[in-house]
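In the design runs reported in the main text, the only information available to the sequence generator was the tokenized backbone. The following block is the verbatim input for one such run; it is reproduced so that readers can re-run the procedure and compare outputs position by position.
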């Protein structure tokens, strides 16, 4: 038991956290991109959409028609759906980063923009800052870092497709970064699992209480 625990600790330290440290500048870039897009989302809602919640409601109705009655899912089914979607998105963010980092850039930008638009809509409808934060922060402080980590590795993969590190050709750089990405999932998956549990069973309650 102790040996297994030691091996797991060594793996996280030498494989997972080492890669995160190598990606620290790309992590800062990903955080900055997400924050900037969130701010732009508020601007889009307030200026370009004329602070009109009805426009967003129409998009939400179309979304429901496309993906079915999500509101009718049981809490456990909703948990599985959220976990699956976030896991798939994180995986694609990393692996499709090979396409010059375009996919992680678009994914972070869209997620941040949507968050900003929803914040603007919520406030325009008379909601308060505390209610919104209670609905986002409990799971967001775990889910967003997991996606940021995935995006940083996606950006690294895209960067090294264009300019492989010294001593590696393009094919070797791709294989190395895909391997690192898979190892990062040993951290990302538990984070997304915990975030999905919190979002369904805690954030929803807090949002309904303080919203």
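Verbatim output:
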């Amino acid at each position: 038991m102790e040996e297994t625990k030691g091996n797991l600790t060594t793996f996280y330290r030498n494989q997972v956290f080492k890669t995160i440290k190598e990606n620290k500048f790309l992590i800062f870039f990903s955080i900055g991109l997400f924050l900037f897009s969130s701010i732009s989302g508020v601007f889009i809602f307030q200026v370009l959409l004329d602070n009109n919640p009805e426009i967003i409601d129409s998009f939400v109705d179309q979304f429901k028609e496309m993906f079915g009655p999500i509101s009718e899912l049981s809490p456990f089914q909703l948990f599985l759906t959220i976990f699956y979607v976030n896991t798939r998105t994180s995986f694609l963010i990393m692996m499709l980063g090979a396409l010059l980092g375009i996919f992680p850039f678009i994914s972070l930008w869209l997620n941040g923009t949507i968050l900003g638009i929803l914040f603007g809509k919520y406030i325009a409808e008379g909601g308060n800052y505390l209610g919104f934060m209670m609905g986002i922060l409990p799971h967001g402080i775990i889910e967003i870092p997991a996606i940021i980590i995935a995006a940083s590795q996606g950006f690294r993969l895209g960067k090294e497709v264009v300019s492989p590190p010294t001593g590696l050709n393009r094919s070797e750089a791709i294989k190395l970064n895909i391997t690192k990405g898979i190892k990062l999932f040993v951290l990302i998956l538990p984070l997304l699992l915990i975030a999905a549990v919190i979002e369904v069973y805690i954030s929803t309650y807090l949002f309904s209480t303080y919203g």
